[in-house]
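Quick look at the format.
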Amino acid sequence: MHQGIGLEGLNTLEPKSAVSALFECCHCVVLADRLAKGRPYASRSDLFSVADHELFCLDEDTVDRLLATHLGVGARPKSKASEGEQCALWDPDHMVMGRLHALVGEYEAHFGHSFLVYAGEHTAQEIIDVVAQRLHNDPETERKVLRNELAKVHRHRLERMLGPEGGYPLW
């Protein structure tokens, strides 16, 4: 994965390389291509704004295909490479993970699509509460929530790709 390339680095990549780097963040060729064509970005916030806008412009079928690329809750427990994402969620209490998986299954049966959340620093128990709360959403509201969660995941990945503001310190 492209990590720490900085905004200037992204802006100066060859078009195909830019699409590749952005695809690693969003797992959607259409979105990666649109973001690559939007370069150069004057600031990180410009990139993030365009990424959010373009995500919300995608049709529902594309969003469903995008959802299918995300690993499920706890699929990579405690993975550093997946830090902040739902697949890295883990709890040493098997009952907590069992409850989380059961609720996610209930969610997916109820809404007919994969569950997605930006886990960030949340614990498995906190995500259980999130899933339980989202089960009360109507389908239209849940699709909006889902896109917001996708936007958070994409921002997290874009930030990781860019690295820290101002770059890494020289040794």
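Next, a different chain entirely:
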Amino acid sequence: MTESYLSKLLQLRVLIGYLGERANFAWWPTAFYEASSRLFLEPVFSKTTALAQYHGVLEAARRLHDEHLNVGSYHLFRLPEEVEQDLHLLVQHSTGEFASPTPKNRDEALGALDKLAVTGMTFNVGPTAIGSIKDIQSADILRAIAGAYSSGFSQNFQTYPYLVG
């Protein structure tokens, strides 16, 4: 797997994780990316605060998606083990603060997501099949995943794009 593909997955996770928090679209009831969260996390995770925020949001998003999808399907927040390990290594070995910086605000996050998204497709409320997990490295699949979330956020509905095994 190329680092560029993994970087896009990581970027999508951070953007959608940020937008899904309670201060934005409230898909999950967390506040890991709010300023007050840093004050709470820094004493415990002084060197890895951004990583703790990422993993907190990742778990919240994973749980929500798992509640709405069948066992055995994959989604942005639950990928095959080897992909998860590669992403973990990318995050762990990133230089500086974190491999994919947190957006400053909702509009910046939506703009960045729109740049990654496919245009001209219609996405459904709830679970939406995007393709096969074997194609996860495809730029088209990543754009479709970004497009589904972008559509959901802009039209104020929850969508759960998934890949079949």
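The helical segments are 3-20, 35-41, 49-68, 81-92, 106-116, 139-154.

See the schema section for token definitions.
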